[in-house]
Task: inverse folding
């Protein structure tokens, strides 16, 4: 079992809709949680990070963390065609603060 | 803002050859990480350095080695290359004082023929 699980998609949403991405992690002591966006053939781009339970909003993005359920999500509001990409959930294990463990990614397609 | 720089961007090698990948972190970042991403896969952590010392080691083959130099740049040395080493290799850097937010470089695409 991977440390970080994501629904692989693909997730197709119409332009202007909300895209909802989910991620669960296995290690209850995990401390830091990140969402990266990766376009095909490009490098992962950090778009959100969250450390505390609750919601964190940044522009059209909202990250939600529930440590009791070991669950982190990303909402993309007013989805645009430029949001079409693979979204990677990443977690820092409690054993160290260094490596990121990634989920397999969710591919999002925004239909114009 | 300055980003992570990696060189070369593309590299083609034959089996059993060696390769050296270079990474220049964001200025004032003290930690460097190397990740390998195969086709259709998520990035896999290889190794990291903090203040020029190895800080963590992941699924890095014994044929690979890495180091971080006094100017904080890092090099990943790969020997006895195999076809399965063909992948995107990303370097990321972070400021250890700021919550381990890792910023990735553009990557080096290694093709082993």
Result:
């Amino acid at each position: 079992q991977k440390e970080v699980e994501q629904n692989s998609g693909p997730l197709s949403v119409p332009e202007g809709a909300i895209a909802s991405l989910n991620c669960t992690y296995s290690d209850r002591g995990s401390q830091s949680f990140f969402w990266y966006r990766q376009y095909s053939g490009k490098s992962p781009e950090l778009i959100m990070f969250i450390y505390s339970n609750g919601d964190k909003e940044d522009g059209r993005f909202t990250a939600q963390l529930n440590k009791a359920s070991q669950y982190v999500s990303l909402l993309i509001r007013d989805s645009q065609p430029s949001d079409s990409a693979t979204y990677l959930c990443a977690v820092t294990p409690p054993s160290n603060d260094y490596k990121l463990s990634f989920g397999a990614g969710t591919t999002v397609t925004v239909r114009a | 803002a300055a980003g992570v720089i990696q060189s070369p961007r593309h590299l083609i090698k034959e089996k059993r050859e060696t390769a050296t990948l270079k990474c220049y972190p964001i200025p004032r970042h003290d930690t460097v990480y190397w990740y390998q991403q195969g086709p259709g896969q998520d990035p896999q952590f290889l190794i990291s350095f903090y203040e020029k010392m190895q800080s963590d080691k992941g699924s890095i083959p014994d044929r690979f080695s890495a180091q971080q130099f006094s100017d904080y740049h890092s090099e990943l040395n790969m020997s006895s290359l195999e076809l399965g080493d063909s992948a995107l290799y990303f370097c990321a850097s972070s400021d250890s004082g700021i919550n381990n937010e890792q910023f990735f470089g553009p990557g080096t695409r290694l093709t082993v023929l």
Summary: The radius of gyration of chain A is 13 Å. The interface with chain B takes residues 32, 34, 36, 41-46, 49, 51, 88, 92, 96-105 of chain A (CB under 8 Å). The mean pLDDT of chain A is 93. The first strand of chain A starts at residue 4 and ends at 6.
